[in-house]
Amino acid sequence: MPETNAAEIPFLRASDKKMFIGGQWVDAASGKRIDTLNPATGKIIATLPEGDAEDINRAVRIARRTFEGEWARWKPYDRARLLIRIHDLVERHWDEIAALETTDMGAPLTRTRALRTWVLHSILYYATQAQNIAGQTLPNSLPGDHLTITLKKPLGVVGGIIPWNGPVIAMWWIIAPALATGCTVVLKPAEEASLSVLRITELLVEAGVPDGVVNIVTGFGSTAGAALAAHPDVDRIAFTGSTSTGRKIVEASAGNLKRLHLELGGKSPDIVFADADLERAAKGATMGTMNNSGQICFSGTRVFVERSIEQEFVERMVGVASALRIGNGMDEQSQIGPLISAKQLGTVSKYVELGLEQGATLATGGTRVGGDLAEGYYYTPTIFSGATNEMRVAREEIFGPVICVIPFDTPEEALRLANDTEYGLGGGVWSRDFNTVMQMVRGIQAGAVWVNNYGVIDPSVGFGGTKLSGYGIKGGPDHIGTFLTQTNAYIQMD
Ligand code: NAP
Ligand code: MG
């Protein structure tokens, strides 16, 4: 069986990693370290500096100084060129980055390799925007002769806090627009998965990102993350993570009224009508959650199925789920890797027990994987049938490979159930009928609706949630504006 060996990843040859502040690879001021594991084996693969408030303070001080220094004089053309150099280096090193990401957070190589297209597209998207940041000359009706113009300026120091479930994606939503606009960054990746971010930072250096423009502080959220969110000299926090941490970020940011971008949790609906292409829908609705073992914010974990096809559709989904090959993500045959941690495995197991207690039926899955995989944090793709939208498994984000199938009778009922959630991140519709599709697209309260597919995201289109899934759109034409501030000038000409 073809396999990429973790030991062959050059970045892992030296296992005591450093973080990156002011152009230097450094240890935490405290000297403390955190172990980081491979979830496929439970083994330690590297240690990270345990940065805390002191390291954050230093990184923010440098980021501020850099923002006001030479970096402010870089031309749009130079910033675009820098992003293009980064694009080319990331492209060249993607297989290595994918293997590192897989080893650090478990997603199969088939997935991490495929993320390449999105990442490259994203970097280039912001590169092209760097030269299109423009203010306006606006009309006015003031007495006398005034010229009124709007200047667009980079916002300042941007703090990024990202989760473990896809750091190679999440980091670009922050770093690429920051470089395109002339901001500086202090990024705190999740302590469970920081390695790909550190490797990519080496490439940023190679591409010529000036010292102090991008700073990476590894460490825990409750210390380093909290210090960044509360720091009085950070202008904006881009946060991706859970809704409960999102609330803490909002509170911590109040001191200097930071701008916030919150990408939070979800419990997204995926609605299947009887007239859909059922084979395609079954595959799409199953993979809409099983991708990355359900550890994706917009996983379509509540599958609403028109009652007339409920039984047949559950059988199809079970067919798809039970055929998925579970294994170490470094094995190119694996389709489902481990969950991120023993803690996450415990959470998923508890929710499955809860689903059974509350009366749902286990159509497939519901077990931890043993045998050769017993040391890793593997869980079988799990589908509950006979669930209701009131059950806790249908209301709370599990962040694991667990789907609830819930029947409906009318489009109106489907919509009511779909929207009966605190969250509003994604939603899916499977139907061949245009009017049904449009009724759902208009009615689903979520930032993204996928029709006859689930989960595609294009950097040029943008992505963001509503309700408890947060606010702000990443990607798309408006995102770059959130890294800018503006000055309106009234210039008397007479
Ligand atoms: P999390 O616990 O909220 O952690 C996310 C990040 O916040 C980590 O870097 C974490 O650090 C840090 N953090 C924790 N407590 C903090 C605090 N008090 N102040 C500042 N930072 C703090 O989320 P997770 O469990 O890792 O990730 C899964 C969640 O993220 C799910 O809810 C998922 O839906 C959401 N998510 C949303 C999106 C989206 O685009 N909407 C995308 C991906 C994931 P440490 O972990 O190092 O302690
Ligand atoms: Mg890890």
Structural class by helix and strand composition = alpha/beta
Count of distinct structural domains:
2
* Share of residues in strands: 15-25%
* Tally of alpha and pi helices: 15
Major β-sheet profile: 7 strands, mixed
Task: Give your account of this protein's structure.
The chain is α/β, with parallel strands linked by helices. The protein has two domains: 280 residues, 3-Layer(aba) Sandwich (Aldehyde Dehydrogenase, Chain A, domain 1); 190 residues, Aldehyde Dehydrogenase, Chain A, domain 2 (3-Layer(aba) Sandwich), CATH 3.40.309.10. It is built from 15 helices and 22 strands. It has a seven-stranded mixed beta sheet with strand order 14-15-16-13-12-18-19, with helices on both faces. The protein is globular and about 75 Å long. The termini are far apart. The mean pLDDT is 97. The site of magnesium ion has 6 residues, from β3 and α2. Magnesium ion binds next to β3 and α2.
List keywords for this structure.
alpha/beta, 494 residues, 7-stranded mixed sheet, globular, binds NADP nicotinamide-adenine-dinucleotide phosphate, 15 helices, 6-stranded mixed sheet, Aldehyde Dehydrogenase, Chain A, domain 2, binds magnesium ion
Strand-helix topology:
Layout: E1 19-21, E2 24-26, E3 33-38, E4 43-49, H1 53-68, H2 76-105, H3 109-130, E5 137-138, E6 146-154, E7 157-161, H4 167-170, H5 172-181, E8 184-188, H6 195-207, E9 214-216, H7 221-230, E10 236-240, H8 243-252, E11 259-263, E12 269-272, H9 278-290, E13 302-306, H10 310-322, H11 342-357, E14 361-364, E15 382-385, H12 392-395, E16 402-408, H13 411-419, E17 423-424, E18 426-430, H14 434-443, E19 448-451, E20 466-467, E21 470-471, H15 476-479, E22 484-492
Helix pairs in contact: 1-7, 2-3, 2-5, 2-6, 3-5, 7-8, 9-10
The structure holds NADP nicotinamide-adenine-dinucleotide phosphate (NAP) and magnesium ion.
Residues 36-37, 104-105, 192-193 line the site of magnesium ion.
